[in-house]
Fold this protein.
Amino acid sequence: MERPWPASLFTAGRRSVTKEAQALGARHTNRGPYIREREVDSKVIDSFNGLITSSLTKLVWLNANTDAGKRFAGATVKATADFIADEEMVAASNAWFRFSGTNHRDGLTLASVGLSPLKTRFAMMLPPKLIGDPHKAWFEMTRDVHVATAPLFGLIAVPSLADRAALIEAGRLWQRMHVQATVFGLAVQPLNQLMEMVDRDQALKHPSEAEKALNSLSAIGSDVFAFAFRMGHSRFITNPSPRRGIDEVLGS
C-alpha cells in the first residue's frame, strides 16, 4: 500500500497575476477616434513583432502617412462601400447587429460602435426603425474616423488562405497582440473589409480589386494577407460588448 505524501512537503504558494492576465478582462475593441499625430513608439512595435511564435505568420506595419498607408486606407473605404452594396453580405451582417445587449450575448451593439457618449445615449433611446441604416453609418465611420484618425495600420500575412493551421496562428497572434496593446494602453480595432471582399470575390468567382489592393501594399513573397487592424493612442472610452460565458460556448 502506498503511503500518502506527508503534509509537511507542501506549502502554500504565492498567487501571481501577470499584467497580461489582468488585461484579458480589460481589453475592448476601440472603434472611436485615435490621436493621429501621436505615433506608436518603434520599441513598442518591436515588442509586438516579438509576439510572433510561428513561421506561418508575418507582420507588416504601415505608417498612415506613407503612400502604402494611404493606399490601405483608401482601399479599406472602397471595400466597405462594396460590402454595403452587396445585399447578401448586408443581410448576413444585419443578423449580428444588436440594437441592445439585452437579448443576445454576442454581436455588435450600439454602445460599442464608437459613437460619443451623448450620441450613444440618444441612439439607444430610439426604436431601431428610427436609428437609420447601421451600414451607412459604418461606412461613414470607416471613412471619417477609423482610417482618418489612425496613425498606424498592421497586417498579418500567412502562406495561404486555405491553410487552416496558418489562419489559426494568425488569430492566436492577434489575440496576443490585443492583450499586449491593452497592457501598453493602446487602442486597436480590426479592419478586415478588404479580406472580406477577397473572400466574397472568390466565392462569386469575380476578379478581385480588393486582392489587387492588398497585394500592392508590401512585398511579402508568395504570402497573402489574412488580417488587418489599426493601432494608436485614443482618449475615447470604449464600452464593453456583451459576451457569452464559457459555459455557453463549450459543448457538452
Remarks:
- The longest strand covers residues 224-232.
